[in-house]
Amino acid sequence: MAARPRIKDVAEYAGVSPKTVSNVINDFEHVSERTRAAVREAIEALGYRVNLAGRQLRRGRTGMITLAVPELDVAYFAELAKHVTAEADRRGLTVLLHQTGGVRERELAVLRGFDAQFSDGVVLSPLALLPGDLTGRDRRLPVVLLGERPAEEGTDHVGIDNVRAAREATEHLLARGRRRIAVLGGAARGRQGTGRLRTDGYREALAAAGLPFDPELVVPAAEYHWRDGARVAAGVLRSPRPPDALLCMNDQLALGALRAAHESGRPVPGDLDVVGFDDIEAARFSVPTLTSVAPDKRGIARAAVSLLLARVDRPEAAQARHEVAGHRLVVRESSGGGRPRAGS
Hints:
- By secondary structure, this protein is α/β, with parallel strands linked by helices.
- The chain is built from 13 helices and twelve strands.
- The protein has helices at residues 7-14, 18-25, 33-46, 52-59, 75-90, 104-112, 114-118, 131-135, 162-175, 194-208, 226-237, 251-263, 297-313; strands at residues 64-69, 94-99, 122-124, 143-146, 156-160, 181-184, 218-219, 245-248, 273-277, 291-295, 322-325, 327-330.
- The strands form two sheets. It has a six-stranded parallel β-sheet, with helices on both faces.
- Helix 10 links the parallel strand 6 and strand 7.
- The longest helix is centred in the C-terminal third of the chain and has 17 residues, at 297-313.
- The model has no long low-confidence stretch (mean pLDDT 89).
């Protein structure tokens, strides 16, 4: 049986030092792309595999991280979990996956329970945590939050610029001549959750266009599921002054709204434009296809895992880091875009 290749063998094959190979394996920043490519080619050619057990024992780590999201049957969180798992796998880590249901006690349990003792850190997408919950947590457990930027400043965080994204989506609708734009799942008041931030972006776009803000057009939703979108949209479309566009706080609300528009006889995009958030896979296959704000989910996952591992390496680092991932508006048929090819 051939001997298992070692870092020294990879270094000789790639023409670099063993330290450089280690830096590439651990994804350190100060390595050129040319050198990374050479080392990765050597790893692939030799069939080198990281000795995870030995490495974790030397570091006093488990090699496991926790990912906690509200609902795995919400497509955005399922897609995000896929990207986090792929990024962790690329770094030789195992992901422990939790579904919190957006319940505060379950979110707290992720920070204080079994995983807090067994995993190297937690990536958490919270819905119900209060700022004080984070202030009082055990700082020895590295935590990265996903979603809107928390009021508590001492925890690492990754998210998109929700205000800007909603403003851009609203500007797109205004440019199409829409003037009564309803916000499904929005929040004109309350603490700075995602719905509130996106509503703020909508209001900024109206103000820039010289249009008044009508609070009657901000329609809350109990949850952000398909059925909620259908129910809330059906209600606003029956109103005496129905909207001519719907800005939905996620794609599942938007897809439900498309159904309600069909049942009410409001053609989309003729009488009504519909825009969602998250750019889930279903948005590319609905009829009509759905215009949506697409967050860089792969970038979010990469940033979250990187921040977590940096915090694992330096748990006492005082300065919390906030990473803003990219986004783009993908215009499809539901707001006047051309017919895409299947699957695009």
